[in-house]
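Schema walkthrough. Field components (list of strings):
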Amino acid sequence: MTSLSRSPGKHAPRAAASRALPLAALVVLALPGLLGDEFLLRFAAEVLLIGTAVMSLNLLIGSGGLVSLGHAAVFGVSAYTAAIVASQVDGNAVAIVLAGTMAGVAMAGLMALVSLRSSGLHFLVMTLVIGQMAWELAFRWRELTGGADGLRGFPKLALGDWYLDDALGLYALAALTALACWSLLRQTAAAPLGQALSGMRDQPLRMTALGYDLKRLRILAFILTGITTGAAGALYPFVNQYVGPNVVHWSMSAAFVIMAVLGSIRSLVGGYIGAALYLTIQTYLSSYTDRWQLIIGILFVTTVVFMPHGIVQKIRGGKTP
Amino acid sequence: MNDVGTDASAMPQEAAPILTLNGVGKSFGAVTVLQDIDLDVRRGETLGLIGPNGAGKTTLFNLIGGLHAPDTGRIRFRGGDLAPRSPAARARMGLVRTFQKSLVFPELSVQDNIAIAVRASQGTGYSLRRSAHVLARSHALSLIDTSPLKGRHAESVSGLSYGEQRIVDILIALAQKPLLLLLDEPTAGLADTEARTLLALVRRQHARISIVLISHDIDIVFQTCDRVAVLDLGKLLVVDAPRNVVEHPAARAAYLGQLSGIAS
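Field assembly_structure (string):
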């Protein structure tokens, strides 16, 4: 039941496959915890946080084909907000996640309102421009954001007296956040709202004739995106106790889109698979070669040619539902 | 053109018309598509809308449905001016339309196609609660069971034949609880028996809704409609009971005369 457009109760084999996927995801979630390696745990936390952002981008793409090139702005603004708020609240994790989520909703809401009348190429450019405005702010507003240097030295995450400065604590929090966001979007996909969102993608004219307010649907999709991307973005600075303007830059948004296509834009879990693949190549292969982006490129082309609907859809049995 | 629509012998003249068009006109650039249209749709009647290709029939639907705004004139639905209402708002008021092409949701089952419309009329379309599904789906099922698609609710719509998809298309519109139903060539491409089944379905479901039917199938129009309106080159030639329209010289010249052996 992870597909954005799945209707309840049909096709037993597919249902079994989609039940197996979350299970596999749980096993994968538990693995870094069992292995206990500090670097691996931090890397896995990063995959989960970025993967959550990609998953919510999938929701947008699955709702009327809204391919955003400003998604990093939602993620990055939440990250900056979290890092800045951290100093005010002594690293209180609950307050930080709340503040980051609210910042994410605000940024996504702004993006929704500004791009409300656009679609296709115009939507893409509009989100790109808003994203670059956010980057400009992060890059130029030195007093608040540290400019090109970014922010360091903010307090570490804490829950009461329990400091989450070790990798395991951070990983656990990232996993918890990812699970919460995933179940929110899964719930959405299975609820009337999810069907209305995919209806908006497939038959916008009919949806209007049915009395659905497409603008309202679009804003709701953006808000859900803001909640999930915001929550994940809020924890992101604590992976390396650093946040810099790159995380708001449009190239980060482009990387999100690539991860989404790699994993499968029609699946929630696909967001995590795409993020894991991309970040693994970036993190591990980049120590052997500077040309890791070439490998990403080849992988991307291969995916698009041989698995046009992404890796997860391929595992599920080929074509889109 | 008010004078042409006054033969009320076919229908009892009851309450105010459900839809009123006064002096409605529309141009696209230099092309005048509709000109000074005055038309009433009475409560409970089936009004046929016929005319040659390019006469402006679908444009008229687009104006009533709100996809385009008229350049001149006024459209009232249940007494209220429609001008400030969006297409979605009009649909929520009970002004429901179908399109020349079946607009179904190919990835969903027959039942979920109908349920998405049921939820729209129940106001639960944006809900995050799965329980809203259950109610809408059972409602959808009871509607499907009255149609030729009975027992096939779980099938994916993309696997249905063209004619079956048209039935889904109509069921979606009926699930919206229309007060006025605008049907744009619902029987195009269907065999005669299929077409009759489809229209019987509409009538059986909702004996008291008003219907405007665009169709090129003159036999069906003349047999099922209470009144017929003939549109040609953007002008309304006549609105009258079928037997009077057949005798109408301008209508014959413009459209009916081209068709041999009709409604004798």
